Amino acid sequence: MTRILYLHGFASGPSSSKARYFRQRLEDAGARVDIPDLAAGDFEHLTITGQLAVVERAAAGEPLSLIGSSLGGYLAALYAARHPEVARVVLLAPAFGFARRWPESLGPARVAEWRRAGTMEVYHYGENGRRQLGYQLIDDGAGYEDYPDFRQPALIFHGADDDVVPPRYSEHFAATHPNARLEILDSGHQLLDVLDEMAPKIVEFLRP
Predict the structure, then answer these.
(1) Which residue numbers in the chain have pLDDT < 70?
(2) Average pLDDT value over all residues in the chain
(3) What pTM does this model have?
(4) All residues at 6 or more sequence positions from 111 whose CB lies less than 8 Å from its CB, including other chains
(5) Which has the least CB within 10 A, 1, 12, 41, 97?
């Protein structure tokens, strides 16, 4: 199999259970899998631009495929749209429209307070605790397209009961991109209860 980068989700990290699960399954199938820390040790100053730079350094200009979960899925789509050497893309509940969806989830008042204060406390799943996050994530993210127009073959999984990133975002992308195959699963945002259902399909999709 080709080299694969796994891009973890928001407020997560390389040691997440999903990242470890897919690394094991893909390495068992003969792949080389790398899982970079997208925050590069500085979660408070996280930006889309900074995370894409981490992906670029990890990719090192080599041909590879990408797997991205949630925000990592959005980053995978952005990176693939800008890097034709990416061969294939797997997206797990991708966070399309990342920057503009924050008012939907937090409400306009809390977003306005976040902008005013400059930082906001959020729960960091990878560190199992509360961390500060700067508003620059939204300012920077607003400069990126909601639906990256990549053309590589893509396999997308999304939970029907996802209350973090509604499945309509993936449905819209798939409807406008014939290169993408979408599967809606009976699950939520994390997709942890359907890993064994997804894994063989992902392994087969990523075989050269």
Answers:
(1) 1
(2) 96
(3) 0.97
(4) 102, 103, 138
(5) 41
